[in-house]
Design a protein that fits this description.
alpha+beta, six-stranded mixed beta sheet, five-stranded mixed beta sheet, globular, binds adenosine-5'-diphosphate, binds magnesium ion
Length: 329
């Protein structure tokens, strides 16, 4: 049956790809988590992830500075290594650029990319460069590593009774994007949200530290939105969840901008993506001992029936899930 991708959805297509290429070597983890995991010698695993940013889909050239775009391209990829508690070791950068792109643009792009990479000590080791008819397309591949014992934290380990935590406030990035698109006047609060949208900081040391805690059972980074990303943990772990909407951390800047603009901060926190905070589940005993700053927002419950469900406690109206590239909202 021929279907449009708008019906199948991003994750439907990924599932078809996964089924078509299901024959993978023993011990290797492929499609379905933030990174692929490839066991190496001497008790270490290599982590690999790749992400693409397309002009018109992920950014508008007139809105984002090339510096910020460079920063963000490196940051969102390194975040996928952080998402599993790994240590990033290298990136590869592929660029498709229209011939009209200026060297001023590329210099600034590389400056942003280098600054974020240097901050996390991650060298750029290769890539590919090609002309594009009109739109900028950026693809980054990132490599990382972690020990095999107490190894990468996957999405499928959440257990009944685990508390659900995030490492920082949610919704700022989505608020920043909304402010850009709506042309909201840039006071310091609005600027703070826009900065979080354009210059996310991957939670690398937090991820590595969380991996070392035995009671942390599942982890990922929040790229598509809390609703959508928690759903991935629940699907992979065959669990349901209960979220106390009133305990989702919201920054003061977001609350103030939402009050003045009449926006719902909870909606932005749940449905808006690109916060790049870590979302993890752990036993209540472990949670009390964690030194990584975090907020408890709910708990993992037994799978009731059918598909994974999130029970949003304290929500004043139904909350929409996060981003899907093909499905229309
Ligand atoms: P993230 O948001 O963490 O970058 P995605 O939601 O993009 O992850 O992808 C989910 C999973 O599907 C990942 O394991 C990713 O490697 C895999 N995936 C996505 N697109 C493709 C593709 N075109 N071919 C193979 N695997 C893919
Ligand atoms: Mg991810």
């Amino acid at each position: 049956m021929i279907q449009h991708l708008s019906q199948l959805g991003e994750f439907g297509l990924i599932e078809q790809i996964r089924k078509r290429f299901s024959n993978i070597p023993d011990g290797v983890t492929g499609i379905g988590d933030d990174c692929a995991i490839l066991p190496q010698q001497f008790g270490r695993d290599t982590l690999v992830s790749t992400d693409m940013l397309i002009e018109g889909t992920h950014f508008l050239r007139r809105d984002i500075s090339p510096y910020d775009l460079g920063w963000k391209s490196a940051a969102v990829n390194i975040s996928d290594i952080a998402a599993m508690g790994g240590h990033p070791t290298a990136t590869f950068l592929s660029l498709a650029l229209p011939a009209t792109t200026t060297t001023e643009w590329t210099d600034e792009f590389l400056r942003g990319y280098a600054e974020l990479s240097e901050r996390f000590g991650v060298p750029l080791l290769g890539g590919d460069t090609t002309a594009s008819p009109d739109r900028i397309c950026i693809n980054v591949t990132v490599l990382g590593e972690c020990p095999s014992v107490r190894g990468a934290l996957r999405r499928d380990g959440a257990k009944k009774g685990d508390v659900i935590c995030v490492t920082g406030s949610l919704g700022d990035s989505a608020g920043g994007l909304k402010a850009i698109l709506d042309g909201v006047k840039r006071d310091p609060d609005v600027q703070r949200l826009i900065d979080r949208h354009y210059r996310p900081v991957p939670r690398v040391s937090e991820g590595e530290e969380l991996r070392l805690n035995l009671g942390v059972n599942a982890m990922m980074d929040i790229s598509d939105g809390l609703g959508s990303d928690l759903q991935h943990i629940l699907d992979a772990s065959e669990m349901d969840a209960e979220i106390d909407v009133t305990s989702i951390p919201l920054s003061l800047a977001l609350k103030r901008v939402c009050t003045s603009q009449g926006w719902d901060p909870v909606e932005l926190a749940v449905s808006g993506g690109e916060d790049y905070e870590l979302l993890f589940t752990c036993t209540p005993q472990t949670e009390m001992l964690l030194s990584v700053p975090h907020f408890v927002i709910g708990k993992i419950t037994d799978r009731a029936r059918g598909d994974a469900k999130i029970n949003w406690r304290g929500a004043s109206r139904p909350l929409s899930p996060g981003f899907d590239h093909f499905k229309k909202k």
